[in-house]
């Protein structure tokens, strides 16, 4: 079995280091310039209302080293009235720190589980394996159900139909 070496153990104890991809570098530059504009004192997070939207916003915000106040647009509809109501009722961004931290923890665990277990199974079985937090239990449920179906035995059933007239 192949052994893991130090190339696979580079973890920064202060957290993960993100890099802007080449494909998004130009757009990121526009966002960074806007986030750090001296004429702007507050930033509105209008990403999807939920954990993933919060994570995406904070990754860009933190990468840009922005320190400005955050307000949160929290809407679940793209109807004009819902959007207008959302902007009239912006929420304090500080109230979404736990949502960001939960999304960050989930993303980190996905990466750690996927990276480590995929590598482990690939080394053990000498094939490329992909293991993940969601796909592995889902695959288990599919395999379990498939096994149950294969174990089904046909039975002869007699069906009686009785018609009754009044």
TrEMBL record:
Residues 96-166 form the Topo IA-type catalytic domain. Coiled coil: none annotated. SUPFAM superfamilies: Prokaryotic type I DNA topoisomerase. The lineage of its organism: Bacteria, Bacillati, Bacillota, Tissierellia, Tissierellales. One of its GO terms (molecular function) is DNA topoisomerase type I (single strand cut, ATP-independent) activity. InterPro entries: Topo_IA, Topo_IA_2, Topo_IA_cen, Topo_IA_cen_sub1, Topo_IA_core_domain, TOPRIM_dom. The gene is topB_6. This is Omega-protein. One of its GO terms (cellular component) is cytoplasmic replication fork.
């Amino acid at each position: 079995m192949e052994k893991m070496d130090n190339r696979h153990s580079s973890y920064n104890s202060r957290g993960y280091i993100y890099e802007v991809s080449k494909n998004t570098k130009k757009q990121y530059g526009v966002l960074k310039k806007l986030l750090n504009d001296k004429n702007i004192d507050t930033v509105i997070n209008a990403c999807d209302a939920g954990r993933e939207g919060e994570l995406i916003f904070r990754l860009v915000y933190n990468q840009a080293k922005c320190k400005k106040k955050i307000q949160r647009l929290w809407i679940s509809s793209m109807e004009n009235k819902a959007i207008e109501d959302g902007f009239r009722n912006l929420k304090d961004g500080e109230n979404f720190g736990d949502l960001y931290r939960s999304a960050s923890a989930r993303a980190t665990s996905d990466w750690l589980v996927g990276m480590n277990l995929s590598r482990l199974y690939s080394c053990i079985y000498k094939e490329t394996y992909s293991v993940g937090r969601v796909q592995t239990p889902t695959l288990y449920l599919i395999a379990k159900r498939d096994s149950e179906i294969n174990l089904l035995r046909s039975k002869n059933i007699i069906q009686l139909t009785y018609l009754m007239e009044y």
